[in-house]
Design brief:
- This protein is an alpha+beta fold.
- The N and C termini lie close together (about 10 Å).
- It has a 5-stranded antiparallel sheet with strand order 12-11-10-9-13. It has a 4-stranded antiparallel sheet with strand order 3-6-1-15, with no helix packed on it. It has a 4-stranded antiparallel sheet with strand order 4-5-2-14, with no helix packed on it.
- The protein is about 20% helix and about 35% strand.
Length: about 290
Amino acid sequence: MTLYAVRQSIRYDFNRPTGAGRQLFRILPADIPGMQSVREAGYAFQPDVGERGEFHDFFGTHVIEAAMPPGLVSLDLTMHSVVERTAEDALLDLSPPLRGLAAELAAHRSVGPRAPHHFTDPSRRIPDSALIAGFARAQVQEGMTARALIEGLGLALHDHMTFDSKATRVDTTPEEAFAQGRGVCQDFAQIMVGALRALGVPGAYVGGYLRTLPPPGKARLVGADAMHAWVRAWAGEEMGWVDYDPTNACFARNDHIDVGFGRDYDDVAPVTGRLRLDGRQSGSHSVDIEEITA
């Protein structure tokens, strides 16, 4: 078990007062039985936006909804939470051979938020791609289990891609990022989800936070941690969902703090909505994750 204090700050500055708008924020850590529990959480707007509320979307992500008043010249949203992570690697591979996964998927009757059927088809940000599908098929070996495929595909993608924060934009397609072999965690995750789906493996996009450690002998920098994205893949009825981080070539462990999941980035984007603007804006955000004692 690992206990974290998580703090996030999102700031906007506008060169002219804004009109009214409405924004949705998906930044609060999730409660996940057996994996993650939230001991406390809170947030604050400065200035106070007035009308606001909270709800959980279809996939269970905690959403903050805020009606933005006109006349804003700046906005700060700060979030703090204490999160307990208990996720561990599954040491035993209980997944079926890849060729048997389709039968288990067909026999799965649930259509709830975590049902694998929601994550088999292309989505708006992860369309079919012959290029990515060909890459995925090249990773399949005879007799491979679903879990082994998930790991092998993630490792191959990590070898193919180079992390480059300037290579892509938020609207870069998975195929574009894959073709140039460069991108950020959003690109790594969406490419892998598309590759999994091309092989008949249900794949979901996960958004959250990643605790980073400084180099040996260096102090930890406040605000140096980041929002992150990884993959949740369905490995059959007995094993269930498995989280894999292709950006770091590892299964998601206690350093990964889950906010929510969905079909692609659109379902778990940290900030969505509309705001009337007459001029330019600038924004910044920072995340600080500190391991604490109980």
